[in-house]
Amino acid sequence: MTLRLKAITREDHLAFVRNRRSASHMQLPSWGDVKPDWRARSLGWFDGSDRLVGVGLVLLRPLPKLRRYLAYLPEGPLIDWSAPDLDRWLRPMLDHLKAQGVFSVKMGPPVVARRWSAEAVKAAISDPRAGRLGDAEATAREPRAFDIADRLRAMGWRQTEPGGEDGFAAGQPRYVFQVPFAGKSLEEVQRGLNQQWRRNIKKAEKAGVKVVRGGYEDLPAFHRLYVETARRDRFIPRPAAYFQRMWTALTAEDPDRMRLYLAHHEGECLAAATMLTVGEHVWYSYGASTDRKREVQPNNAIQWQMMSDAHELGASVYDLRGITDTLDEDNHLLGLLRFKVGTGGEAVEYLGEWDFPLNRFLHKALDLYMSRR
């Protein structure tokens, strides 16, 4: 059966997502409003009965002085990845985008390949032979994911190699850390936290740390802490306008799509974090904290409040987003991995991002440019 692909309205796109238990926030129509340097398009796949069976948010980045575009589907598209004939889904997309002047397509299949329990990650960190998480024995493997990867390669798709010494790709992280909530009471989730986490939560409560929900007007306080965090953890911070745009776009689509949490102690804001919700999937999106009064444990307090609220919302998974895959003790991101492992969840590896060059010359020129940045 042939699938047709065409542009769809934001309303149809959002209605399709609402009927799914989980979808990346980067595949929502509103995410295009967060990225003004890209041109966003909603695409829909239709079956022989003209029924909408898949959607994708495509971000188009124009090449300077040329009417040619890089197309990017972050953590998408939302199609039937288990279909035996993936080409039936992906070929119409490539044909459509090529007709729009696209020279290269990048996508991130939302397909899990491997999982490591918290115990397996801790063992890997302690093992001097395990230089990277991928070298450690996985707790669970998803055979269909490797079959999908083989089929993508056979179609001409190329897997993007992780960039940077910390194993993060230029796009979205391949490795994330998640806490499964499905079928668990909040008490069971709490029992899954390691002893240090439970102790720190009690310490914060005893010290009088108060975690509150903020609004748009509290974004400047969040951003001040975020910039301080960027200096400490050695990354380039996003401007305040990015978070203001993100709040406006996401909450216009759904008032509860994005939340802001702030941890106060004796009138001072010590930590802040954003939380995103789509269906039964909740993400800890951005976090920020100061070096002051770290002994009152505001970071543990704010995470536990977010986890509690996510559980109350009916989340099946609480997603702490990207982790480094390097297990080098000298790596400054290893401390963040240890912090997330304390939640008792699991490290999850996705298939990563894949490229399809529609114009090999322009695609190679882009690769060369990116390698020299």
From TrEMBL:
Family annotation (PANTHER family): LIPID II:GLYCINE GLYCYLTRANSFERASE
Keywords, comma-separated and alphabetical: Acyltransferase, Cell shape, Cell wall biogenesis/degradation, Peptidoglycan synthesis, Transferase
Annotated organism of origin: Streptomyces sp. 900116325
Keyword Magnesium annotated: no
Name this polypeptide is given: Peptidoglycan bridge formation glycyltransferase FemA/FemB family protein
Family annotation (PROSITE patterns): FEMABX
Family the entry assigns: Belongs to the FemABX family.
